[in-house]
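idk why but the lab printer keeps eating my pages so im just putting this in chat instead. protein + iron/sulfur cluster:
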Amino acid sequence: MADGKWGHCGSCKFFGSPATAPLEEEEAPCLHPVHVKYRLTVFASNGCTGWELRPGIGAPREAAAPPM
Ligand code: SF4
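predcted complex ->
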């Protein structure tokens, strides 16, 4: 997927929340072009390697490395 960077859904442009900066406990559909057919609902605290920076927020630290 994308460039292999892992990031949290809450800072991802594919997180289907109307908020600019979603709260960690928020849930919304994943609108990633590969995932959308599965109709996934994810929490802002979830994440994956399809992450891309959400417009309107700064680059989060979790984008640099996968979780341990
Ligand atoms: S599952 Fe992946 S692509 Fe979908 S919103 Fe979360 S980080 Fe983004």
